[in-house]
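Render this sequence as a predicted structure.
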Amino acid sequence: MKEPIGREAEIIRNRRIELGLSQMEVAVSAGLVLQQYQRFEYGYQKLSNANMITALRICAVLQLDPYQFVTDI
């Protein structure tokens, strides 16, 4: 897959790296398969357009505020 595309993908990727987690660890902890998580991290799918439960699970694992994905703040 390509490099991360877009603001959301960069936030997710940088936070995962900051926490020292692998993509697989995030995916499993969020209840996703690896490929589902990778679509968000590589920018092929925006977290702000995802199913609310999926987005909140990823935010919880990465300890991110979900509001940063629904606003431009």
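Summary. The two ends are 28 Å apart (CA to CA). The chain has a mean pLDDT of 91.
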